[in-house]
């Protein structure tokens, strides 16, 4: 489905907002472009950009996150391999795995895992009720955004997995009632059991899909 474009005026406003944001982020200067916007304008523009990413690469449609299924399986296969080697007394052959990608790679993966999912989907008519939303791409995907998984052996077979987004601990959604940031690895695998069985791409890639129920 092609990307929907706005009027020339809305495109110009978006371009001016990007110029303001980029110059501030890269040069740490208050760009003249920023003078075109007050705080409320900036919040509206932020929501507009979040709205775009929500429907294009995150929770808007199921196929968005399922595009990361192969990456998801690779991630858990590496964790399983390291754990099996550790439990068998072998030297872990891949103590650290680093994979480089783009925000367009990371966002669908975060959505597949259920991070930053609000109770209501972002739409063009519920801006006022979304001021406290978790889904904020400016915080989720800053420059050098990263997602880290760390396995811990706490002794006695107590193997735990800690997720971090941009070096900040987060909790796997729905894994525990207490929302621990370091749940048992077995609990995490059970939570994602259906995904770990494999992704049905024939079903996911149907041409006509209804917006995901959030």
Helix percent reads 40-55%
Shape: elongated
Low-pLDDT sequence parts:
none
Distance between the termini: 21 Å
Quick check: average pLDDT? Answer: 89
How many strands appear in the DSSP assignment? Answer: 3
**Mind summarizing the main beta sheet?**
3 strands, antiparallel
- Beta strand %: 5-15%
**Cα-based radius of gyration, to the nearest Å:** 20 Å
Q: What's the order of the H and E elements?
A: HHHHHHEEEHHH
Strand order of the largest sheet: 1-2-3
The SS-based structural class is mainly alpha
Can you count the helices? 9
Protein name: Multiple inositol polyphosphate phosphatase 1
Keywords: Hydrolase
InterPro entries: His_Pase_clade-2, His_PPase_superfam
Compact summary:
By secondary structure, this protein is mainly alpha-helical.
């Amino acid at each position: 489905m092609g990307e929907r474009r706005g009027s020339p005026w809305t495109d110009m406003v978006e371009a001016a907002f990007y110029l303001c944001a980029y110059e501030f982020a890269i040069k740490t200067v208050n760009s003249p472009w920023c003078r075109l916007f007050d705080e409320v304008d900036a919040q509206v523009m932020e929501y507009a950009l979040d709205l775009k990413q929500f429907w294009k690469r995150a929770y808007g449609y199921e196929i968005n996150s399922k595009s990361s299924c192969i990456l998801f399986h690779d991630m858990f296969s590496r964790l399983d391999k390291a754990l099996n080697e550790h439990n068998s007394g072998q030297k872990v052959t891949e103590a650290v795995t680093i994979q480089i990608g783009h925000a367009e790679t990371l966002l669908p993966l975060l959505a597949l895992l259920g991070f930053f999912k609000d109770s209501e989907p972002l739409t063009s008519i519920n801006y006022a009720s979304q001021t406290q939303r978790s889904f904020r791409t400016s915080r989720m995907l800053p420059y050098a955004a990263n997602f880290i998984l760390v396995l811990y052996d706490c002794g006695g077979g107590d193997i735990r997995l800690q997720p971090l987004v941009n070096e900040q601990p987060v909790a796997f959604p729905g894994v525990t009632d207490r929302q621990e940031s370091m749940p048992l690895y077995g609990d995490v695998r059970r939570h994602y059991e259906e995904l770990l069985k494999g992704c049905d791409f024939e079903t996911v890639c149907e041409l006509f899909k209804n917006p995901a129920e959030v």
